[in-house]
Each structure stands twice: as C-alpha cells, then as structure tokens.
C-alpha cells in the first residue's frame, strides 16, 4: 500500500481492510461449504434417491440478518468516510488547478504558478478548485488517498491535509488520450517555515484575485456591475458579497452563488437571470480561458468578507502557512 501521508488516509485504509477481510472470510467460508457438501452429500450409488430436506426458519433468519448487519456497517462506515473526505473545510487554503493534455497547471492564492508540481505546507488544509481545458481528467494522489474527476465545463473540488513532509506522486487516473501515462506530477509537502521561505522567493506575480480584478476592468464589467446594483445605476447585479449567498432568479427560483454558478453566468449569462434585471450581458465564451475564468471568480470571491482566502496577499499566505495551528491570523 502507498504511504499514509494525509489525515484521511488511515480512515480510507481501515475501511478498505474491513471490506477486504469480510470478502476473504466469506470467500473461504463459501468455498469450504461447497467442498464439504460435495463430499458429504455426494451420490454413493447410481439408484440412490436423496432424502428430502425441509427449510429451516432459524437458518434462513441467520443468513438474512447477518449479511444485512454487515452491509449496514459498510454503509454507515463508508458514509462517514465519504462525508469526511468530501465536505470541504471553510478555512482551507485555495489553490486553482487546470488540467490540459497532458499537464497539470496550478496557481496559488499569492500568484505563484506551477506545472506538474504542487508545493503545499504540512498540517494545513488545502482546497483544490479544478477544471479542464479539454477532456475529462482525474486528479489522484495515492499517498493522500484522494482522487477527483476534473470535468470540462464545470468546477470540482477536493481537499486534503498532508501530515508528512516529502515528495508524493500525482497521477491522472482517467484515460485522457495518447500521452495519458505521462500526465504525472509531484506534490511537495514542506514544513511551514520551508513553505514560507518558498513563498517569499516566489512573490513576483499577482494573485489570482488581483489578475481577475485587472481582467474585470479590461472586459468592461465595471460599467454594469456597480456597488449598490440597480440603486446605484448599475445594469447588472452587485457582485460584492454575492459569493456563497442565495440569489433570487426570474421565475422565483433560488440558487447559491458558488463557483459553478459564477462560471455559468460569465459564459452563458442568459441561463439564469437574476430577478429584476434584463438579459443584456454578452457571453464571454471563447473570449476568456479557463485560467482567466478562475481569476475572475477569485476576484468576485475576494469581494465577499467570508472568502478572505481568495484575496490573500503574499505576506498573509506566508503567515498562514507558518502559523503553528495552521490557521490564518
């Protein structure tokens, strides 16, 4: 088995070994019973007529109740591990990932970019927001026991917290074309002080939120999305504080303004019209890349007080990485 290098790895392995143990136990039991019955109840003479065997309520109850209890234990245990693995912590450090044949492109909240390498601090929860420029990929780190499909046209998220410094393999676990086997990388887990030094030596780039703000202005979004919305003369809804909040749509529906909603609103603005506004926003399909979409979303997230992660400066990120308890100060 790969090394257990994350907080979830031990839970996943324990469930796997439990499932494997049950499978082996019943495989041996059933094969042994077959051999026993073949020998014990074999026909000993050509004209032998077996004695009729009547059902046993006790036996039938046992082989219904015991498998049911085992199945329920697997369900409950599996659900517990599933929710622990796929409930994204709110205090996680955001890193954006774009898959492309055949590489992984990462961008940190302080602007650092990496290809096929991901530097993360030990003991800090990391949230990956992922998409792809072409086909389906799958982001897989065996030592962390985490894997998530990366799907065109939407965002998927996964999280982990590394517990041991070192270098760990990163794979694409979804066949994505001719050079699929070469779509590999390395996750480099560093101690907090080492990660702080790495951040300090790579601060020449703007953060995704800062890049998104520039793009927001370049595309002319500021002419419609004004602070105060319609009350301030804006032709589009106010974006400050919108992320993570419910949005009322035409027709009475309500949606939560998450990453996928913001992405759809940029690429297909007429799909969900905010109540009280007209469908006048043009589509930016084909005008912005996947990385630019992530930057725009990072900027919009930074306008919401509860999404301070998206707008962290280099100093704040370094300070968060070096904090003893792994939380932002």
Relevant terms:
disordered C terminus; 329 residues; 5-stranded mixed sheet; Cytochrome Bc1 Complex, Chain D, domain 2; Helix Hairpins
Distance between the termini: 37 Å
* Helix fraction bin: 25-40%
Superfamily (CATH H level) name of the largest domain: Cupredoxins -  blue copper proteins
Task: Quickly give the structural class.
Answer: alpha+beta
Summed up:
With 329 residues, the chain is an alpha+beta fold. Helices cover 34% and strands 20% of the residues.
Secondary structure: elements and pairs:
Elements: H1 9-40, H2 57-86, E1 93-100, E2 103-107, E3 113-115, E4 117-121, E5 125-132, E6 137-141, E7 146-150, E8 156-161, E9 166-172, E10 184-190, H3 192-200, H4 208-218, E11 246-248, E12 254-256, H5 259-267, H6 290-302, H7 314-322
Parallel strand pairs: 1-5, 4-10
Antiparallel strand pairs: 1-2, 2-3, 5-8, 6-7, 6-9, 9-10, 11-12
Helix pairs in contact: 1-2, 3-7, 4-6
């Amino acid at each position: 088995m790969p090394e257990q290098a994350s907080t979830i790895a031990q839970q996943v392995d324990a469930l796997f070994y439990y499932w494997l143990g049950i499978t082996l136990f019943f495989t041996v039991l059933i094969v042994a019973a077959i051999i026993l019955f073949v020998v014990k109840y074999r026909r000993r003479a050509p004209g032998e007529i077996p004695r009729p065997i009547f059902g046993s309520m006790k036996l039938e109850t046992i082989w219904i109740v015991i498998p049911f209890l085992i199945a329920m234990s697997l369900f409950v245990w599996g659900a517990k591990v599933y929710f622990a693995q796929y409930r994204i912590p709110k205090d996680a450090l955001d890193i954006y990932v774009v898959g492309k044949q055949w590489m992984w492109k990462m961008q940190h909240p302080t602007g650092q970019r990496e290809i096929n390498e991901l530097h993360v601090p030990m003991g800090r929860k990391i949230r990956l927001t992922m998409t792809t420029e072409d086909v389906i990929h799958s982001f897989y780190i065996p030592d962390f026991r985490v894997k998530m499909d990366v799907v065109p046209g939407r965002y998927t998220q996964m999280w982990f917290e590394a517990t041991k410094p070192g270098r760990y393999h990163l794979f694409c676990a979804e066949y994505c074309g001719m050079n699929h086997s070469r779509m590999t990388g390395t996750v480099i887990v560093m101690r907090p002080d080492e990660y702080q030094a790495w951040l300090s030596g790579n601060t020449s780039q703007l953060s995704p939120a800062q890049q998104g703000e520039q793009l927001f202005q370049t595309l002319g979004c500021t002419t419609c999305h004004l602070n105060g919305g319609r009350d301030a003369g804006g032709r589009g809804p106010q974006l400050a504080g919108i992320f993570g909040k419910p949005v009322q749509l035409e027709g009475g529906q309500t949606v939560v303004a998450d990453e996928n909603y913001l992405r759809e609103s940029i690429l297909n603005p007429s799909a969900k019209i905010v109540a009280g506004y007209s469908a006048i926003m043009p589509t930016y399909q084909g005008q912005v890349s996947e990385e630019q979409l992530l930057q725009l979303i990072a900027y919009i997230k930074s306008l919401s007080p509860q999404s301070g992660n998206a707008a962290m400066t280099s100093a704040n990120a370094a300070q968060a990485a070096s904090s003893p308890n792994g939380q932002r100060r």
